[in-house]
Amino acid sequence: MTMLQGAPWLLAHRSILKPNQPFKVSLYGQDYVLWQDKTGKISCLPNACPHLGAMLSEGWCMTQADGSSTMVCPFHALEFDSHGCTVLPNSNKQTKPLLQPLDLIIQGDFIWTYGGYEPKITIPTILKDFATEYEFIGHTKNFSVKTELLTMLLNMHDYDHQNGTHRPLFEIEKVDFKEFIDHGYHSHAYFDLIRKQPKLNDIFKNLGLLAIPKTINAHLENFFPCFIVVHGESPVASAKQIHFFVPESETYTRTYVLIYGKAKHPLANLIKKNFVRLAEIIIEQDIDILGKLYPNVPQHIRLNNEIGMDWVKRNFENFSLAETQRLRE
User: Rieske domain location, by residue (predicted)?
Assistant: First the structure.
């Protein structure tokens, strides 16, 4: 259970999908093609054409008279509808489904899936609240990181790495941990990040730094295992930076960020797009350090603020144990 089958995963936000353009996603070691037609309907099929295995995501969409779309294989131009059916050459009869569609749960702009497994955790409702109350600022690019899901989650809940991994960006000098509230698969972490004054050169590179105070009163709201909400408050804006995780395989995890905001000052409207780039830099710094770890090294040092990492390990073990017990029954 290293990929936590039965947890909900946000495959994409609707803004990531351009109409009638295939988008490749991976989950649990299986590749899929995701697409949105002109009517807004979203479909998802296994990515391998059942003829000779060509990647459907390398093909294109064909719009039908009713506005729906078929996915066209780039090898022999076979068209597959959202049910996985096609019409073979020299035939006017549609085949039975040759590809099993991935079950999707569409909640507004949010595209969820359980990957074909029985749900073990309900989908959090907080994202729908953000969509109602805040302006959608944008999304980062997708990052496929060569690390397993557990390592990714441990890194994201390691509150002491802020003044190491992210020191070059935020000039963080100290982490002052305040409180951790544990509600099982849902938790809150509160801590202060004490910063140096940013250099003018850094501000010119990313104007989003102007919205970050000298002392960051960090509030992270964690929804195991699929996403983390960074609640950000400054005199300029209120922001919600949401980090998502999708287990592509045993050894790769996809991550990306959605950002919502509410302006408090006209300056926020001028720099809001910089928040997206700021989030990408944070991910790039995390990826860099994760690629420079020696695996399976025994931990002989424990830092003061590892409570978030303990929460991840405990939930990971409990989730896996519950599944093992269910299979034995």
Answer: 9-113
Indicate the CATH number for domain 125-321.
3.90.380.10
Please state the pTM of the whole predicted model: 0.91
Distance CA 326, CA 329 (A): 5
Range(s) within the chain of domains with CATH label 3.90.380.10: 125-321
Q: What is the per-residue pLDDT across 86-104, written as a single tens digit (0 to 9) for each?
A: 999 888 889 999 999 999 9
Instruction: Let me know how many helices (H) and strands (E) the chain has, helices first.
Output: 6, 17
Interhelix angle 307-328/149-156, rounded to 10 degrees, is 150
Note the maximum CA span of the chain: 71
pLDDT digits (tens, 9 = 90+) for 175-209: 899 999 999 999 999 999 887 776 666 656 656 55
Q: Measured on CA atoms in the order 172, 169, 293, 26, is the torsion positive or negative? A: positive
Cα-flanking dihedrals φ and ψ of residue 301, to 5°? -125, 135
- Domain 9-113 -> CATH class: mainly beta
Q: What percent of the chain has pLDDT over 90?
A: 73
